[in-house]
Amino acid sequence: MKTKVAILGGGNLGTALAEGLARTDDASSKYDVTITRRNTKHISYLEDSGITVTSDNAAAVDAAHLVIFSVQPTQIEALINEVKSDLDPQKHILISTMAGVTGEEITELTGSGFPVIRVMPNTAAAINQAMTCIEQTPHKEAEQEVVELFETLGKTLVINSELMEASTVLGACGIAFFLRYIRAASQGGIEVGFHAEEAQLIAAQTALGASALLLNSDSHPEHEIDKVTTPKGCTIAGLNEMEHNGLSSALIKGIKISYEKIEKIR
After folding, report:
1. Torsion-angle region of 47 (φ positive above 0: left; ψ -120 to 50: alpha; else: beta)
2. In what residue span(s) does the Pyrroline-5-carboxylate reductase dimerisation domain sit (predicted)?
3. Per-residue confidence at 262, pLDDT binned at 50, 70, 90?
């Protein structure tokens, strides 16, 4: 029997989760997914993948076991008030993808008794390549169900509560950071002679290869860098020029600024 999942909020992230769950045989055979949005025409195409699309949040919750809150933090109070009478602590596991909203704050709105687990995936869930950080809680059985769900969408890591905001910056915002690097590398490729689509292909596949080198081994980035930096070579010349212009420090500062922004939202 399939586990019923309600994704409340069909924005970019909620849609990515639904697309990923419909994309693989493993997930689609295990989960029955409903996604909600006020204006369903924007996500009606998901029905072609076997996902139920509706604007009725209460009905989605009533039919579900796993309830994912995937709305903006400013919308959560109104959303919970809308579905509160349909929430049952004996039936539902509540999952939040909202940055800056604690489990305690959700419990204040829903009432006690619910297992509430915060997660931070990213939009690569749409192609089952997400990095999802999952908050460690006392609710171990519920936590395991959540881990199993998000394992179908990519890789997971269970972390302490105090690191959830940091995971938002490194994992979720990180998608944009790495895409900006690929865009810049593509523009550099055009400068040295490639057509735009060729440059993007080379830059994106090279970034994928670099990531795979680390994920498929216990190697450190500098170890892999050393393999392609020869004395007086072009690689070290380019790396040093980038560092002279602040590549690493700019990225580190950007991550810190994003984190400070989340801290101000809380």
Report:
1. alpha
2. 162-263
3. confident
Residue 10 assigned ligand-binding role: yes
Cβ atoms of 65 and 82 within 8 Å: the answer is no
Percentage of the chain with pLDDT > 90?
A: 94
Tokens of residue 39, six digits: 């204006």
What are the boundaries of each domain within the chain?
3-159, 168-265
Helix 174-191 with 196-215: angle, nearest 10 deg: 130
171 has binding-site annotation:
no
| C-alpha–C-alpha distance, residues 191 and 188, integer Å | 5
The answer on whether 216 is annotated among ligand-binding residues is no
CB atoms within 10 A of CB 60: 24
| pTM of the complete model | 0.93
Structure tokens at 188: 């550099």
Contact 49, 76 (CB under 8 A): no
Name residue 158's beta-bridge partners.
134
Q: Tell me the CATH number of domain 3-159, given options 3.10.180.10, 3.40.50.720, 3.30.470.20, 2.30.30.90.
A: 3.40.50.720
Task: Kindly report, residue by residue over 110-149, the tens digit of the pLDDT.
Answer: 998 999 999 999 999 999 999 999 999 999 999 999 999 9
Q: For domain 168-265, give the fold.
A: ProC C-terminal domain-like fold (1.10.3730)
193 annotated as belonging to a binding site for a ligand: no
CB of 76 within 8 A of CB of 61? Answer: no
